[in-house]
Specification:
Layout (H helix, E strand, L loop, with lengths): L2 H18 L11 H17 L8 H8 L37 H4 L3 H5 L23 H9 L14 H4 L23 H6 L3 H7 L34 H5 L15 H5 L22 H7 L51
Length: about 350
């Protein structure tokens, strides 16, 4: 064996001994800054006298691994929590990387240790999210917002849903692999639980494809708060509609003022008995603005005249006014001032 090979063999032997006897750590060891975060939090809890269950989730699952229904205890099995990001122990931000179930339900040693007499109820966890013994809404939401306060939730404070004392768990289901509010097929049913009027409108003849599963409420609305009206994701209604209907955006050489102002001047976005989500049947929708002008119904105007025997052309056909004014959203034709082309 050459001197070089002997030196290499000796170096490998020294490294193996160092790893075995703990004088060095392998290159793939966890980052000390990452691994120190949970232990630091645990030390702070111990110093403050906060009482957490010694065995964490293993203690909780002694009771909460099966569904129990009865006069004293009624709850669903919680085992599906292990299929969610909340139960990821490898992520320091996840609840299970801290105090398992008690990261959300609060220190509940008293709940675990209590042994009530027959007919008595066990002491409740620090935070109860559902049921008749649920904690105040502010306490429940505080737990959720301790992690989920950025992004789409940054406008939650002062939003309509917060003002109506809505809890996060009123919409979200945590102990399931797929939260129904986050799935297109099931999200509308959650929203319609409160918004019955919008549910009825989506059942009308003309509607956005909500029932078909192609569009959901959160495509247009941010339920966690918004700077726009009705929790819309954009400040202006038109900007939201243009996201899908870009051909109506413009700018046009000739612009129809109601279109530029607000699409809901003419359309009901949740549904209508009229074609194209129109709030009224044309020409009555057009007459809301044009009835007082000589353009509609003037005896001396041959095309729009409603005099006996004139024919009242603007009332003919299903499209009515749109038979002629086909480019009602705006026109780029030099001769399109009346939206003919």
């Amino acid at each position: 064996m050459s001197a070089r090979n002997r030196i290499r063999g000796f170096a490998v032997l020294v490294l193996l001994c160092a790893m075995i006897f703990g004088t060095a750590k392998p290159a793939f060891a966890a980052d000390p800054q990452q691994s120190a975060a949970p232990s630091a939090a645990t030390a702070a809890d111990e110093a403050s006298g906060t009482l957490y269950s010694a065995r964490g989730v293993a203690t909780c699952m002694k009771c909460h691994d099966t569904a129990i229904n009865g006069p004293d205890r009624t709850y669903k099995a919680s085992t599906s929590i292990f299929q969610t990001p909340h139960a990821t122990k490898g992520d320091a931000r996840a609840p299970f990387a801290q105090h398992d179930c008690e990261s959300c339900h609060g220190p509940s040693e008293a709940h675990v240790a209590s042994h009530p007499a027959p007919g008595q109820k066990r002491a409740l966890p620090a935070v109860v999210f559902n049921g008749p013994n649920a904690s105040p809404v502010s306490a429940r939401n505080e737990v959720c917002l301790s992690c989920h306060q950025n992004g789409l939730r940054m406008d939650w404070v002062g939003s309509q849903h917060q003002d109506n004392n809505l809890a996060c768990v009123s919409c979200h289901t945590i102990h399931v692999a797929k939260d129904p509010i986050l799935v297109k097929a099931t999200q509308p049913e959650k929203c319609f639980g409160c918004h019955a009027e919008q549910r009825a409108l989506t059942l009308q003849f003309s509607h956005h494809p909500v029932r078909e599963g192609k569009v959901v409420c959160s495509d247009c609305h941010n339920p966690h708060g918004s700077a726009g009206p009705s929790l819309l994701k954009k400040v202006r209604v038109t900007d939201l509609c243009y996201g899908c209907h870009a051909d109506k955006r413009g700018p046009m050489l000739w612009e129809h003022q109601p279109v530029r102002e607000d699409c809901t001047n003419c359309h009901n976005p949740h549904g209508s008995v009229n074609p194209r989500l129109l709030k009224e049947k044309v020409p009555f929708l057009c007459l809301d603005c044009h009835a007082a002008t000589n353009d509609m119904g003037g005896v001396g105007v041959s095309v729009h005249s409603n005099a006996p025997g004139s024919g009242s052309l603007y009332l003919y056909g299903d499209r009515s006014c749109l038979n002629c004014h086909s480019q009602i959203h705006g026109s780029n034709s030099p001769s399109g001032s009346t939206f003919f082309r």
